[in-house]
Amino acid sequence: xxxxxxxAGAVGRSVVELAGEYGHEVVAVADSSSATVADGTDGRAGGxxxxxxxxxxxxxxxxxxxxxxxxxxxxxxxxxxxxxxxTTLGDAEPGFSHVTAALERDRHAVLANKGPVAERFGDxxxxxxxxxxxxxxxxxxxxxxxxxSTVEDIEPGHVTAVRGVLNGTANFIxxxxxxxxLDYDHVLAEAQDLGVAEADPSFDVDGTDAALKxxxxxxxxxxxxVDDPDAAREFTxxxxxxxxxRDVPGSALRLAAEDGRTVRLIGEATGETVRVAPRLVPxxxxxxxxxxxxxxxxxxxxxxxxxxxxxxxxxxxTASAVLGDVGRLE
Length: 330
Fold this sequence. Notes:
Pathway: Amino-acid biosynthesis; L-threonine biosynthesis; L-threonine from L-aspartate: step 3/5; Amino-acid biosynthesis; L-methionine biosynthesis via de novo pathway; L-homoserine from L-aspartate: step 3/3. Helix content is 38%, strand content 20%. The strands form 2 sheets. Strands 3-2-1-4-5-6 form a 6-stranded mixed β-sheet, with helices on both faces. Helix 1 packs across helix 13, helix 7 runs parallel beside helix 11 and helix 8 packs across helix 9. The protein is globular, with a radius of gyration of 20 Å.
């Protein structure tokens, strides 16, 4: 498959670097201010893909991926658009417009960007209905963990709930607080020094990131469980009940440990509700994953409870989910 990668952060660069290993060819790459488009991708014969090493090196050295305009990448002759720009809320732009532009050309789109799927899922489904293209978005939930595809394989109508630890930064902080008896502010500073937490950690520690992932899962459950999309309930971040970890005191973790329990930021999605909040879980239970690990629990009507754990973030990890989705479109 020929890929146009929009977004040249950690995930976009990793897709460019790894696509060849999965049997795909990158024919265009764009960041916010530049693009590179391979010769021949405007429909002429004899085109070859872009040089991944050159693209990544130029981005590192000069802060751009090429000398073309970003719109040139969107207009290239590709089979799949990979939307890997940063997540935005509300109107989910510019990611939403990138995806719909691909669908209007009857191309497929694979998203690593959570915004369009969490904030405008109904609009995306409507665009898909009017197109010969499809969308996939495994990478928007849990990085390398195949949460979305597992729910789809089981069939959403046979899944009653999906819950789990879905943010590595928050989980690292809670793990360190419990292990060392430290307070939140101390561990947050440590996480920032290690690069596990951003300078502004709000998206992670306030539960927003986990909530977006749960909203996406709720949309999968809601739309997948009905034959008529008009009968499905569409979820956005505004529908989620969200509490973060800023106010979790170290004393709470110490008291929990005395009872054989610990605290984790747990997100849960059904076809009717989305909740994210710190919860007490058994210290040696499946939800008590440590460090930056994530876990997803899928409650099913016939197969019981399924647990899937792994790395929930990172360039190569998330790129593997993107490229897995590309393979499903072949």
